Amino acid sequence: MTVTGTTAASAVPGPGGVDTGPPPPAVKRAVPRLYALDGLRLVAALMVAAYHYGGRGGEVSRAWGSSPAEQFPSLHGWFAYGCLGVQVFFVISGFVICMSGWGRPLRSFFASRASRLLPSYWVAIVLVTAVFALPVVAYEAVGPSDALVNLTMLQQPLGAHRVLGVCWTLWAEIRFYALFALFVVLPGASRHRVLLFCAVWTMAAALADASNEPLLELVLVPEYAPFFIGGIGLYLVHRDRRDATAWGVVAVGWLVGQHYAVAGLWHAPNPAFFSYRHTSVIIAIVTLGFAAVAAVALGWFRWANWRRLTVAGALTYPFYLVHEHLGWVTIGFLHQRLGLPSWATFAGTIAAMLALAWVLNRYVEEWATPRLRRALSA
Length: 378
Description:
Blueprint: E1 2-3, E2 29-30, H1 35-54, H2 59-64, H3 68-71, H4 76-79, H5 85-101, H6 106-132, H7 144-150, H8 155-158, H9 167-185, H10 191-211, H11 214-220, H12 225-239, H13 244-265, H14 279-297, H15 308-337, H16 342-377
Antiparallel strand pairs: 1-2
């Protein structure tokens, strides 16, 4: 990853007002890769997978043949906290998007994001639709029209059925990208502009939530904005750990974010619910997510420069896309048809989805991503 310096658009006066001509062009300097951030992304994805396989009811119960609470009587309550991996993802996303958008023109930013998201996403849509259409698979495929709409990533605002259950998080990401592109990347990223963006978005999201105005809530994503904003603040901390205002952005993101996490995931003890999440544990996991990204931002994990973490980061996105629905099919095959015990089925399904993610990364992303980026950047 590189950071591109800026070059003056006009001549710079020298001493005594004499025009000495433009300064030499800034030299690109390599930025050390944050390997630990790659590893943290995979940890967050595995948290979500644990939730989908053993921490909730619904369709996965059909795959197991009974409730996951029966399959994992001691662990299902802990697996239920895995859904907070999404919040950790959003903090990481705020950090990464601010880093990748800094000093980059809008077209390059758009090309980078589109080429990163779309190739594996398109293949995952086709793959899940095709697998669910097989007669031996117990799950119903979406209709052809809805499947085609899913290729645009606009299925949720258009009211189409989702092919991938996890795509709701991509819709939140896209809205964040649009806001950041419009108000930071387009005019040009700077510390002042990024801080202003964080402050205005925080206040606007809170007002949108209080107003109960659907359009404002749709655009400003109030329940997840604090996590993106906290990640942006942590990137500013990464640039300057003494930036007190950036630390303030992080603190507000954490304070508001834990509120939304508790409000969305906590409920009073009720035997009718699949599981019960304690408020203190929700807050602790959100705090650990912020703290882990902060530790990376401060350079505390520089020693973790293992190249295998880059592989982990590369597998995270395709794994996240395919693990839920294709995981149901794999769980049913391993557990009900082959008779593997619950723990072996759980581990085998994770391994199978990681293997599929490697195939998507190796034969789809590595081929399609650079080509699509070049085409969109031309």
